[in-house]
Design goal:
By secondary structure, the protein is an alpha/beta fold. The chain has 16 helices and 13 strands. Mean pLDDT is about 85; it is low at about 1-15.
């Protein structure tokens, strides 16, 4: 049985009588990735509930930085450079020492009741600083990004190190929870399941419309499977009428564009820049595809479900907790363009099935609404800090 934070709603009188919880959130950067967008949404809701928040980043940059600053939340970065690799930054001894000392002093001055670090790099940097600052409650937020570290002994040792630094851990999917438990057994860091959230919207997609627009929303990273998708499109009968739209940015974009050109798919596959309004894109689509090699609990699938779209995705990470094969989408093995091509062609040819699956997704997404997820985080924070928050 996976422990999940209670969904009991605290009434406003109870909340108003409690003193504000001071929370330091830590993350690599504020680029518009899945984890970063989840954090930005969570911050908005927690600010509405009276929490005192500061954000600490490895790099003080990203498309979401203005949004968080507009909330009145201070953002502190260890490194200010915008175009620099993590390795390069660490090699700069002066920049590293100055940045780390600055963040350490700021953490001590803020004196949060708890720190919550998202993604491995930020945990490696900020968890030791939090321990040195005397912050007792150190929550590690585990997501699908951990899977690559499990492939080597060095990576497993790194994950063990991160686990030892944390006093508590949250996982955003059942699969991540199980893998964390298998890695460390009964570790010193208690595990709790808190899933990703989504804003429920009134707008609906029209998945039955033809010819279908098939959309993929994901940054161009090797593990997202863009190349698998392009190869799959090349295997589909050219007599079928459909189009593929890829939205995102990232280091693999040019490589994917070259593959589209090499396979003579320019008339079928179009690449668009990252969109800051994914729901608007999905409302105009008839199918979402996500062929990732690894995932946590993907925002793209949650967003597709919110507007009533069916999904074709790889069975990795927490995807199977969202998509039941044959019920609200189709699941295929990762790294298998042939299976992906068959699933996509089947969905393209079955508009009524797309409609039925989209309706199921629209009903299922209710349990992931942000008010429910925020209550889980709020309950977790209160349970760890205590009923009477100290000054």
């Amino acid at each position: 049985m996976i422990p999940e934070v209670s969904r009991k709603v605290e009434n406003s009188a109870e909340r108003s009588s409690e003193k504000a919880v001071r929370i330091a959130f830590c993350i690599d950067s504020l680029d518009a990735g899945g984890a970063e967008k989840q954090l930005a949404s969570l911050l908005t809701h927690l600010m509405d509930r009276g929490c005192e928040i500061q954000v600490y980043t490895v790099w003080r940059k990203g498309a979401l930085l203005p949004q968080i600053l507009d909330l009145g939340i201070p953002v502190y970065g260890c490194f200010e450079a915008h175009e620099r690799s993590f390795k390069h930054a660490l090699l700069s001894v002066k920049e590293k020492s100055v940045g780390i000392v600055r963040l350490y002093r700021q953490l001590r001055a803020f004196n949060p009741h708890l720190i919550q670090a998202w993604l491995p790099r930020s945990q490696a940097l900020f968890m030791p600083l939090a321990a040195l600052s005397g912050i007792r409650i150190r929550i590690a937020n585990r997501r699908g990004s951990y899977s690559s570290y499990r492939r080597s002994l060095a990576g497993k040792l790194f994950l063990y190190y991160l686990n030892c630094l944390a006093s508590n851990t949250t996982a955003n999917s059942e699969s991540e929870f199980r893998e964390a438990r298998q890695e460390f057994g009964r570790s010193r860091s208690p595990l709790v399941l808190v899933k990703n959230g989504i804003n429920f919207v009134d707008e609906r997609a029209r998945p039955r419309s033809s010819p279908p627009r098939v959309v993929m929303l994901a940054n161009f990273l090797s593990y997202k499977g863009h190349s698998d998708l392009v190869q799959a499109v090349a295997l589909i009968d050219r007599n079928l009428r459909f189009c593929i739209e890829l939205y995102g940015s990232g280091p693999e974009r040019d490589k994917v564009a070259d593959l589209i050109q090499a396979l003579d798919l320019n008339s079928l596959v179009t690449i668009y820049d990252f969109t800051d309004d994914p729901l608007k894109v999905l409302e105009q689509a008839q199918l979402l595809v996500l062929p990732s090699h690894t995932e946590g609990l993907p925002n793209a699938i949650l967003e597709a479900m919110a507007v009533g779209l069916p999904v074709v995705a790889t069975e990795v990470g927490g995807v199977s907790s969202l998509i039941s094969d044959g019920t609200n989408g189709l699941l295929v093995p990762p790294g298998n363009p042939e299976a992906l091509a068959r699933a996509m062609a089947f969905m393209v040819q079955n508009p009524e099935l797309r409609k039925r699956m989209g309706d199921v997704n629209r009903e299922k997404i209710v349990q992931y609404r942000w008010p429910i997820i925020v209550q889980q985080y709020e309950r977790l924070h209160r349970d760890l800090v205590g009923p009477a928050v100290p000054e």
